[in-house]
Protein backbone atom coordinates (compact mmCIF):
# COMPACT_ATOMS: atom_id res chain seq x y z
CA UNK A 1 0.00 0.00 0.00
CA UNK A 2 1.37 3.41 -0.95
CA UNK A 3 0.06 6.64 0.50
CA UNK A 4 -0.26 8.61 -2.74
CA UNK A 5 -0.54 7.40 -6.34
CA UNK A 6 0.10 10.13 -8.90
CA UNK A 7 -1.05 9.38 -12.44
CA UNK A 8 0.95 11.50 -14.88
CA UNK A 9 4.50 12.76 -14.50
CA UNK A 10 4.42 16.21 -16.09
CA UNK A 11 4.75 19.42 -14.08
CA UNK A 12 1.48 18.80 -12.21
CA UNK A 13 2.20 15.23 -11.14
CA UNK A 14 5.85 15.77 -10.26
CA UNK A 15 5.01 18.85 -8.21
CA UNK A 16 2.42 16.89 -6.22
CA UNK A 17 4.88 14.04 -5.70
CA UNK A 18 7.68 16.36 -4.58
CA UNK A 19 5.50 17.87 -1.85
CA UNK A 20 3.95 14.63 -0.59
CA UNK A 21 7.12 12.52 -0.55
CA UNK A 22 9.22 15.36 0.91
CA UNK A 23 6.80 15.48 3.81
CA UNK A 24 6.71 11.80 4.63
CA UNK A 25 4.05 10.23 2.42
CA UNK A 26 5.09 7.31 0.24
CA UNK A 27 4.41 8.44 -3.31
CA UNK A 28 4.50 6.62 -6.64
CA UNK A 29 4.26 8.43 -9.98
CA UNK A 30 3.10 6.56 -13.09
CA UNK A 31 4.01 8.23 -16.36
CA UNK A 32 3.95 7.43 -20.06
CA UNK A 33 6.25 10.39 -20.89
CA UNK A 34 4.00 12.12 -23.40
CA UNK A 35 4.23 15.44 -21.60
CA UNK A 36 3.82 18.53 -23.76
CA UNK A 37 6.98 19.79 -22.08
CA UNK A 38 8.90 17.88 -24.76
CA UNK A 39 7.67 20.57 -27.20
CA UNK A 40 8.06 23.61 -24.96
CA UNK A 41 10.68 26.20 -24.07
CA UNK A 42 9.81 28.21 -20.97
CA UNK A 43 10.32 31.96 -20.66
CA UNK A 44 7.27 32.41 -18.42
CA UNK A 45 8.00 30.17 -15.43
CA UNK A 46 8.61 32.75 -12.71
CA UNK A 47 12.06 32.44 -11.17
CA UNK A 48 13.53 30.72 -14.24
CA UNK A 49 14.52 33.13 -17.03
CA UNK A 50 14.82 30.56 -19.81
CA UNK A 51 14.81 26.77 -19.86
CA UNK A 52 14.08 24.03 -22.37
CA UNK A 53 11.21 21.70 -21.61
CA UNK A 54 13.46 18.64 -21.70
CA UNK A 55 15.90 20.19 -19.22
CA UNK A 56 13.02 21.27 -17.00
CA UNK A 57 11.69 17.71 -16.94
CA UNK A 58 15.09 16.22 -16.12
CA UNK A 59 15.48 18.60 -13.17
CA UNK A 60 11.91 18.04 -11.98
CA UNK A 61 12.21 14.25 -12.10
CA UNK A 62 15.54 14.38 -10.26
CA UNK A 63 14.09 16.72 -7.64
CA UNK A 64 11.21 14.34 -6.89
CA UNK A 65 13.53 11.32 -6.86
CA UNK A 66 16.06 13.09 -4.59
CA UNK A 67 13.31 13.28 -1.99
CA UNK A 68 12.48 9.61 -2.38
CA UNK A 69 9.50 9.53 -4.72
CA UNK A 70 9.23 6.43 -6.91
CA UNK A 71 8.92 7.27 -10.61
CA UNK A 72 7.47 4.41 -12.63
CA UNK A 73 8.38 5.75 -16.05
CA UNK A 74 6.74 4.05 -19.00
CA UNK A 75 4.01 2.44 -16.87
CA UNK A 76 0.53 3.35 -18.10
CA UNK A 77 -2.38 3.36 -15.67
CA UNK A 78 -5.35 1.68 -17.31
CA UNK A 79 -7.85 1.74 -14.44
CA UNK A 80 -8.40 3.40 -11.07
CA UNK A 81 -11.25 2.27 -8.84
CA UNK A 82 -12.35 2.55 -5.24
CA UNK A 83 -11.25 -0.35 -3.03
CA UNK A 84 -12.18 -0.29 0.63
CA UNK A 85 -11.07 3.04 2.15
CA UNK A 86 -8.62 3.64 -0.69
CA UNK A 87 -8.07 2.94 -4.34
CA UNK A 88 -6.82 0.21 -6.64
CA UNK A 89 -4.56 1.34 -9.47
CA UNK A 90 -4.19 -1.06 -12.38
CA UNK A 91 -1.32 -0.69 -14.85
CA UNK A 92 -0.11 -2.78 -17.74
CA UNK A 93 2.48 -4.29 -15.36
CA UNK A 94 0.88 -4.62 -11.92
CA UNK A 95 -1.85 -3.63 -9.46
CA UNK A 96 -1.25 -1.13 -6.64
CA UNK A 97 -3.19 0.19 -3.64
CA UNK A 98 -3.15 3.80 -2.49
CA UNK A 99 -4.94 6.00 0.03
CA UNK A 100 -5.01 9.04 -2.29
CA UNK A 101 -4.99 9.50 -6.05
CA UNK A 102 -3.74 12.61 -7.83
CA UNK A 103 -4.77 12.65 -11.50
CA UNK A 104 -2.27 14.66 -13.57
CA UNK A 105 -2.82 13.18 -17.02
CA UNK A 106 -2.86 16.44 -19.00
CA UNK A 107 -5.86 16.71 -21.35
CA UNK A 108 -6.82 13.06 -20.79
CA UNK A 109 -9.87 12.83 -18.52
CA UNK A 110 -10.80 9.17 -18.94
CA UNK A 111 -9.61 7.97 -15.53
CA UNK A 112 -11.46 10.78 -13.76
CA UNK A 113 -14.64 10.02 -15.69
CA UNK A 114 -14.32 6.29 -14.91
CA UNK A 115 -14.20 7.22 -11.20
CA UNK A 116 -17.42 9.24 -11.74
CA UNK A 117 -15.80 12.56 -10.88
CA UNK A 118 -18.34 15.32 -11.57
CA UNK A 119 -17.82 17.58 -14.60
CA UNK A 120 -18.33 21.31 -15.04
CA UNK A 121 -20.79 22.66 -17.60
CA UNK A 122 -17.79 23.09 -19.92
CA UNK A 123 -16.93 19.40 -19.60
CA UNK A 124 -13.80 19.81 -17.46
CA UNK A 125 -13.26 17.83 -14.26
CA UNK A 126 -14.91 19.84 -11.49
CA UNK A 127 -12.51 20.74 -8.65
CA UNK A 128 -12.32 23.28 -5.84
CA UNK A 129 -9.27 25.48 -5.15
CA UNK A 130 -7.65 22.57 -3.30
CA UNK A 131 -7.99 20.48 -6.46
CA UNK A 132 -10.41 18.10 -4.74
CA UNK A 133 -12.84 16.36 -7.10
CA UNK A 134 -16.33 15.23 -6.10
CA UNK A 135 -14.83 11.83 -5.18
CA UNK A 136 -13.21 11.92 -1.73
CA UNK A 137 -9.39 11.68 -1.81
CA UNK A 138 -9.23 11.95 -5.61
CA UNK A 139 -7.60 15.13 -6.94
CA UNK A 140 -7.48 16.43 -10.50
CA UNK A 141 -4.85 18.87 -11.76
CA UNK A 142 -3.58 20.61 -14.89
CA UNK A 143 -5.24 20.68 -18.27
CA UNK A 144 -8.11 18.35 -17.36
CA UNK A 145 -9.52 21.04 -15.07
CA UNK A 146 -8.61 24.15 -17.10
CA UNK A 147 -9.69 23.78 -20.70
CA UNK A 148 -7.27 25.68 -22.93
CA UNK A 149 -5.87 27.83 -20.10
CA UNK A 150 -2.82 25.71 -19.38
CA UNK A 151 0.76 26.67 -18.53
CA UNK A 152 3.47 24.69 -16.79
CA UNK A 153 3.53 26.94 -13.74
CA UNK A 154 -0.24 26.60 -13.30
CA UNK A 155 -0.02 22.79 -13.47
CA UNK A 156 2.81 22.79 -10.94
CA UNK A 157 0.69 24.98 -8.67
CA UNK A 158 -2.28 22.63 -9.04
CA UNK A 159 -0.11 19.69 -8.01
CA UNK A 160 1.23 21.59 -5.01
CA UNK A 161 -2.30 22.56 -3.91
CA UNK A 162 -3.47 18.94 -4.11
CA UNK A 163 -0.43 17.75 -2.15
CA UNK A 164 -0.86 20.33 0.62
CA UNK A 165 -4.50 19.32 1.03
CA UNK A 166 -3.53 15.65 1.33
CA UNK A 167 -0.83 16.58 3.86
CA UNK A 168 -3.29 18.69 5.86
CA UNK A 169 -5.70 15.75 6.01
CA UNK A 170 -2.95 13.37 7.10
CA UNK A 171 -1.49 15.70 9.72
CA UNK A 172 -4.91 16.74 11.03
CA UNK A 173 -4.24 20.49 10.74
CA UNK A 174 -3.47 23.02 7.99
CA UNK A 175 -0.03 22.13 6.67
CA UNK A 176 2.69 24.42 5.30
CA UNK A 177 5.87 23.21 3.64
CA UNK A 178 8.08 26.16 4.62
CA UNK A 179 11.85 25.80 4.51
CA UNK A 180 14.32 28.42 5.77
CA UNK A 181 17.97 29.25 4.91
CA UNK A 182 19.09 27.17 7.89
CA UNK A 183 17.57 24.09 6.24
CA UNK A 184 20.04 24.22 3.34
CA UNK A 185 22.93 22.35 5.03
CA UNK A 186 20.51 19.55 5.90
CA UNK A 187 19.49 19.34 2.24
CA UNK A 188 23.16 19.16 1.18
CA UNK A 189 23.67 16.19 3.51
CA UNK A 190 20.76 14.23 2.00
C1 LIG B 1 4.35 23.62 -28.43
C2 LIG B 1 4.07 23.87 -26.96
C3 LIG B 1 4.71 24.94 -26.34
C4 LIG B 1 4.46 25.21 -24.98
N1 LIG B 1 5.06 26.27 -24.41
C5 LIG B 1 4.83 26.56 -23.11
C6 LIG B 1 5.46 27.67 -22.49
O1 LIG B 1 6.21 28.42 -23.13
N2 LIG B 1 5.19 27.90 -21.19
C7 LIG B 1 4.35 27.11 -20.46
O2 LIG B 1 4.16 27.34 -19.27
N3 LIG B 1 3.73 26.06 -21.03
C8 LIG B 1 3.95 25.77 -22.34
N4 LIG B 1 3.31 24.72 -22.93
C9 LIG B 1 2.28 23.98 -22.14
C10 LIG B 1 2.89 23.04 -21.13
O3 LIG B 1 3.71 22.09 -21.77
C11 LIG B 1 1.74 22.36 -20.37
O4 LIG B 1 0.95 23.37 -19.75
C12 LIG B 1 2.23 21.40 -19.31
O5 LIG B 1 3.03 20.39 -19.86
C13 LIG B 1 1.03 20.78 -18.60
O6 LIG B 1 1.53 20.00 -17.55
P1 LIG B 1 0.64 18.81 -16.96
O7 LIG B 1 1.48 18.18 -15.90
O8 LIG B 1 -0.70 19.32 -16.58
O9 LIG B 1 0.40 17.78 -18.17
P2 LIG B 1 1.45 17.11 -19.14
O10 LIG B 1 2.73 17.85 -19.16
O11 LIG B 1 0.73 16.89 -20.42
O12 LIG B 1 1.76 15.70 -18.45
C14 LIG B 1 0.83 14.66 -18.39
C15 LIG B 1 1.61 13.36 -18.30
O13 LIG B 1 0.68 12.31 -17.96
C16 LIG B 1 1.04 11.15 -18.71
N5 LIG B 1 -0.12 10.28 -18.75
C17 LIG B 1 -1.32 10.53 -19.34
N6 LIG B 1 -2.17 9.50 -19.15
C18 LIG B 1 -1.48 8.59 -18.42
C19 LIG B 1 -1.81 7.30 -17.89
N7 LIG B 1 -3.03 6.77 -18.07
N8 LIG B 1 -0.89 6.62 -17.19
C20 LIG B 1 0.35 7.16 -16.98
N9 LIG B 1 0.73 8.39 -17.46
C21 LIG B 1 -0.19 9.07 -18.17
C22 LIG B 1 1.49 11.71 -20.06
O14 LIG B 1 2.29 10.79 -20.77
C23 LIG B 1 2.27 12.95 -19.62
O15 LIG B 1 3.64 12.66 -19.41
C24 LIG B 1 3.54 24.41 -24.26
C25 LIG B 1 2.93 23.33 -24.89
C26 LIG B 1 3.18 23.06 -26.21
C27 LIG B 1 2.47 21.93 -26.89
| Count of individual domains | 1
The small molecules bound here are: flavin-adenine dinucleotide
Percent in strands: 15-25%
End-to-end span in angstroms?
A: 25 Å
Secondary structure: number of strands = 9
Work out the helix count.
Answer: 5
CATH superfamily: FAD/NAD(P)-binding domain
CATH architecture: 3-Layer(bba) Sandwich
Question: Mean pLDDT across all residues, rounded?
Answer: 95
| Approximate shape | globular
Rg (C-alpha, Å):
16 Å
| Portion of residues within helices | 25-40%
Largest sheet: 7 strands, mixed
Give helix and strand order, one letter per element, not per position.
EHEEEHEEEEHEHH
Which structural class best describes the helix and strand composition?
Answer: alpha/beta
What is the CATH topology? FAD/NAD(P)-binding domain
State the name of the first-level CATH class. Alpha Beta
Low-confidence stretches: none
Q: In words, what does this structure look like?
A:
This protein is α/β, with parallel strands linked by helices and 190 residues long. It has five helices and nine strands, in the order E-H-E-E-E-H-E-E-E-E-H-E-H-H. It has helices spanning 11-22, 53-66, 110-114, 152-171, 184-189; strands at 2-7, 27-31, 41-42, 51-52, 70-73, 77-83, 86-91, 95-103, 138-140. Strands 1, 2, 5, 6, 7, 8 and 9 form a seven-stranded mixed beta sheet that branches. It has a two-stranded antiparallel ribbon with strand order 3-4. A hairpin with an 8-residue loop joins strand 3 (41-42) and strand 4 (51-52). Helix 1 runs parallel beside helix 2 (53-66) and helix 1 (11-22) packs parallel to helix 4 (152-171). It is globular and about 40 Å long. 38% of the residues are buried. The model has no long low-confidence stretch (mean pLDDT 95). Bound molecules: flavin-adenine dinucleotide (FAD). Flavin-adenine dinucleotide binds at residues 7-13, 30-37, 39-40, 42, 44-45, 76-77, 104-106, 108, 142-143, 150-153, 155.
